[in-house]
Every structure is written in C-alpha cells, then in structure tokens.
Amino acid sequence: MSSGQELQDKYELRPDTQKATHNTSDPSQNSKTGVDYEPHPETSIKVSPEHEQIVRHITNLYSGSANEEDMRVYAEKAVYDDPWSYCDTRYKIAGQWYEEEAGEEVEENEEVWEELMLASSIRTAGLPKLMASSKTLKTEIIEDTPTTIIYKQQQEYTPRLLHFSKPVNSLISLTLDENGKVKYHKDQWNEKDYSHEGLGMVLKTLNGDHLTKITRPPADL
Length: 221
Prior knowledge:
Layout: H1 3-11, H2 17-21, H3 49-62, H4 68-71, E1 74-81, E2 86-87, H5 90-97, H6 110-118, H7 127-130, E3 131-145, E4 148-159, E5 166-176, E6 182-188, H8 198-210, H9 212-215
C-alpha cells in the first residue's frame, strides 16, 4: 500500500457537502445541487488561535506566498487533493505553490514534459506561474474539532494570459495530526467528492509526482 493510500485511509474527510453548506436562510444562494460554497464571514464559527493560524497559513499559500513558514503547516507526510493534483508528501505539495527562482533556467527533461502534457486538462505549472495574482477574498469556518477544520473559501484568480479576474468558491477540509500539522488537505470545487480511481486519478498523481521538477521547491522541505 502506498503512503498516500495509507494517509487517505486514515485522514481523508468526506463531508456531506449538502448538509454542511446548504443555505437554509436564503435558499436562492444554493446551487442546483443544493450546496452554497460562497463564504459568509459573518457566520463563521470562532476557533482557537492555533486553528486560526493554520487557516492563515493555507490562505497565504493560495495567495502566492510559497514560503517555508507557511509550508511547515503540513506534516512531512501529508496529502493535498484538489481537482488537478494529488500529492502525498510536503515536498510534492510545495510543487503546487512554488516556482523556480527568477532567472533560474529549468533543465530540459523530455520525459517529465511528456508525462505532464498527458495531463493537459490539469495544471502543469505551480500557482505563481499560472496566475498573475491570486488572493483570498473571504472565508467562513463551518466546522472545527481538535483534529479537523472545514471552511469555505473564495479565491480570486487572475490568469497571466487573460485580462480578467474570476472568483472561485470551494470547500476546504483539513485533517490534523496530534502535533497540529495538516495531514490531509482537500479542496472541492463542487458537491462531488473524489473517487481516486481511473484516468482522472492517474493524471492528478502525475501532476503531483512530477511538478516539483519544474517548480523546484526547496529540497529541505
């Protein structure tokens, strides 16, 4: 069994998205599938300073920080799971957030590029390389326990090649270990959970396994 599968079996959250996010006070805000992923900060539940800091580190990464302090929010063996990528170590997760230093020449690696081109429907560069800017507009924490945090997030992305910004709402689920480190980070963009099967999982894993060869995060992560 792979380390990712072991982490998945032990730490993955599978929230009931309709139960967790359905807007009963204003049903018009719900999607056709009955979920409301748009954050409403005024109804966010209060959490401990430690959990506030964890969410802050995660939103910093979404907003392009890509620094070691924020990356240390993850345990060394941890899973990041979103529509594009599946990573099973902190170093691989860093590959999603980092880009190579300015002026640093990326070595040609034909095999890596061929594998990533297979995954043409998913991200083939770290967030800073794809986006001119990315900023967290608002969040709403909807569930909090000593070992879990679930919150809604609205992120505004501005692609480098396009001249418009688009807000994206998602549901973020974090599972923590006994040391308060993130062991599983799931980012859902709609009501469907991930099956971790078939071609989609193959492409997500390719992206997670090989993106570090292009974005080059610090080796000591």
